[in-house]
Amino acid sequence: MKINHKIIYLLIATFVIYTLIFSGYIYYSISEYAFTDFYKRLEIRAAIIAKIEVEKSTDVSIIKEMHDTYLEELPRQAKYVIPVADNSNRIDAKMQGEVPSALVRRVIENGSAHYSVKNKFYSGIFYTTQAGEKYVVIVSAENYFYTHHISYLRNLLFTSLTVGALWIVFFSFIISRTMDKPVQKIIHEVQKIGSENLHLRLYTPEQNDLLRKLTVTFNDMLNRLETSFNTQNNFVSNASHELNTPLTSIIAEADLALSRERQPHEYKHSLQKIMEEAEKLSKKTKALLFLAQTGFDGKSQKFEKVRIDQLVLDVRETIQKLNAEFKVSIDFNMLPENPEMLKVQGNQQLLHLALSNIIVNACKYSDSRLVYVSLGASDKEVFIVINDSGIGIPEKELQYIYDPYFRASNTTNYEGYGIGLPLSRNIVRLHKGSLHVNSILNHGTTVQINLPIGNYKI
Amino acid sequence: MKTIKKILVPNDFSVKSLLLLRNAIESSTHQRLHVVLLHGILLSDSITELLFFRKEKYMEELCTKDFEDACELLKNKFQSRIVSLRLDIITSRDRNYFQHYLEANEIDEVYLPQNFELEFFGKRSFDIVPLLRTCTITPIPVRLFVRSEIDLTPAGRIPPFFRPGF
Asked: Which residue of B has its CA nearest to A332?
């Protein structure tokens, strides 16, 4: 807001200063002009009056006629014809009237002068008649223009300036508010996002501008964060679940063996069973730890060439290490002839995790019936399709399956924490791909993953 | 057999019907093929539509992204065998018209679905299979294998391709 305010203040100040200077200059010029103009008019009258009053001849009648007909009387016009005493330049004080002495002296010294006090203007000339008499002729009048018009102009300029300034202030606030609003909205939305709802995303505006770039960048960051966060969550929940079973068997077996005295061969038998379970445990832990890696090599997530067919084979191996009961059949019937079409630019570990989550779900919820995984490629995308004939997802709940921790209503008999699918979708999104789920209750579920081809040239 | 043969396969713009094409290609003895996927659609009665008739417009309306993806998938799978894959439309049920069409396009082989029906969801689409049955080129029937248990699983987008056994 501070930056915004500074800009507003600067704009307003510039506008006000400019307009002040502008109107000030206009006002001053017009004033000056009005002054000069008025003085000229007074001077003309002074000259004419001098001729009329002082020169006593018959020629002046014509001038008088002109004066009376064409020169209108100025408001409060007064004339002063003051004779000047010869050689001493003294004047009769009685004749002076209201005319200030300083003016008279200046007229005598310079030949003509003007003076103004408030709105009374004096203009005087020094006139020497043909007969040699010297007079100071002064005409005074009130400057109507000065009194009325220029004050009107001044008021007008002031009001316009004030109104303009107010308008600019108002307008700047509106504009800054408009620019503010989207940013405020983003701030508001971001404040809602925390570790418990990392799946929320900002709404991206339609126009392709800076704000859209900001929200898109932010959403991408959230994707990456959520993926890492969920990977850890996934590991924790998987670990606690998968590792429990073998541990329980080990404890039960040991407990049973120790409950009373037994023969050595019985002890051996028990120990062997414990050994088997422990090995299973070790394999599972390794698999889980492998899955828990987020593909982060300390500095950044590496994106490299990943061959999807190899990936699918690897995932099958991992899954069978996790649970030997899971059956996965891979269908490579529709593979493209060109193997380059199966190369995707991605992170091997993350994709492995995403795919294994989906396939484990498929196996888990179909009571270890056969799960089919198929691969194919169009010109731009690789398709991975996972088909199971398990319990399916109720149609009404299909829209919620990507919400973290959501479990469908028919999953009460199955263990799970509702983390696998959202995580997989995030990973797929990170790779600029898409994930679609279709399901018929009690018949099965189909998951299709589309990944963009890496366009690697041979 | 260095020549490229032209084959014709009926099409209803569904991914399922492309299975027909796949089986046709797999059963064809020729190595390299031009493929024509033919769909039948009757012209409308409106004069404006007739004036501005464009095949591409009808095909764009009926073609979905999933269908296009599935076509590309097939093209990539049979990259060395499919030289070109073309969608086309005929607008009349007339036998002579169809005969001329076959001759003009130099079709060598025609394939028929044997144990399933094409479904037409376009308003004026018609089934060209009867035409195929009675044309001069002997049609080659193509079977589709259906495994009932898998068939019940939900149809996704491309998944009909990926039902094992198809």
From this structure: B162
